[in-house]
Amino acid sequence: MVKIYLDPGHGGSDTGAVGQGLQEKHVTLAIALKIRNILNNRYQGHQIRMSRSTDSTVSLAARTNDANQWGADYFISIHINAGGGAGYEDYIHSNLSNQGTTGKYRQIMHEEIIKQANLQNRGRKQANFHVLRESSMPAILTENGFIDHAADAAKLKSDTILEQIALGHARGIARVFQLSAKSSPGSSSSFNSSNNQGKTSISKKQIHSVVDYLKSIGEDSSFTNRARLARSYGISNYTGTAAQNTCLLKAVKSGKPSNNSSKLAARRIHLPASASTWRTYPINVTPVKKNSDWSLTPAAFGGLTYDILAEPYPNVVTIQTGRGRRNIYIGPDTSARRL
Ligand SMILES: [Zn+2]
């Protein structure tokens, strides 16, 4: 199993750079979560750990210590630039050459990200950053556009472009470690050892328990969270029996419910292009009109689709946006569609 460590820059009390109504910490997390999703949906043979998967404060030392202790094979730190300029650049530690392992990995990452990101290429650079210096494995730090540059910031507000940036990172990682593609994206069969006879790329260490699987995708594997997931997939009265865990594993991998309760199963929400704006609410306030301070613009993007991260109130779902986790109202009187 290749161990990939994703480090969304900043977080919690450290916003990182700010500009054009964006905070770096939210954009880096959105990109990192997308990288994780793409890798887990399309590739196999890897494990992912994240320095943070929520808007939390994590020190630089805690990040590199965590990656070092875990024994990561690659440390990828994701940032947004600021301070005058435009475009994409990436860094390896100043003591390293482009000919070494870290340099070769970076070359591949650089090529794949530039292919996808729709950002000007500012080149391959070196610096003595903490995460590059204190990590004990090859490490890269990517600076994905300038938050204080109007055109770059406009791109960073587009979910589609964040997805492209994430795709570039994911393809780079897959190429560096020659991860094999899953035969059918999201299908549970690619984890089923009986279906993998003859496939040379499969690691010997199969993921067979729901706990292992949740850990491998960096999700909370506690009983409480499994019970919550079980509910969301329509598995009633979850007590953690082997049969329920098998059911839950299948459901979580495929994104499909274990029964026909399609309403509970919907995991994504689509806001159609016919909607010019869609109010969002910070997650710590009641989602009523007066508490909305920012809107999405589905019409500007030909519609927007988000993963449903939680359903804190009836007809209210939590999604990850360029401004962090937000709640939106998706009641039957709106044109939102569950996918
Ligand atoms: Zn940063």
Automatic annotation (TrEMBL):
InterPro entries from the UniProt entry: MurNAc-LAA_cat (IPR002508), N-acetylmuramoyl_amidase_3 (IPR050695)
Q: Which SUPFAM superfamilies match?
A: RPA2825-like (SSF158634), Zn-dependent exopeptidases (SSF53187)
Biased composition, Low complexity: where in the chain? 183-196
Which Pfam family, any one, appears in the UniProt record? Amidase_3
GO CC annotations on file: outer membrane-bounded periplasmic space
Q: Where is this region: Disordered?
A: 183-203
Its keywords, alphabetically, are: Hydrolase
Domain MurNAc-LAA as annotated: residue spans: 64-174
Asked if the keyword Hydrolase belongs to this entry, the reply reads: yes
One GO term under biological process is:
peptidoglycan catabolic process
UniProt GO molecular function: N-acetylmuramoyl-L-alanine amidase activity
Segments spanning the bilayer are none
Designated name of the protein: MurNAc-LAA domain-containing protein
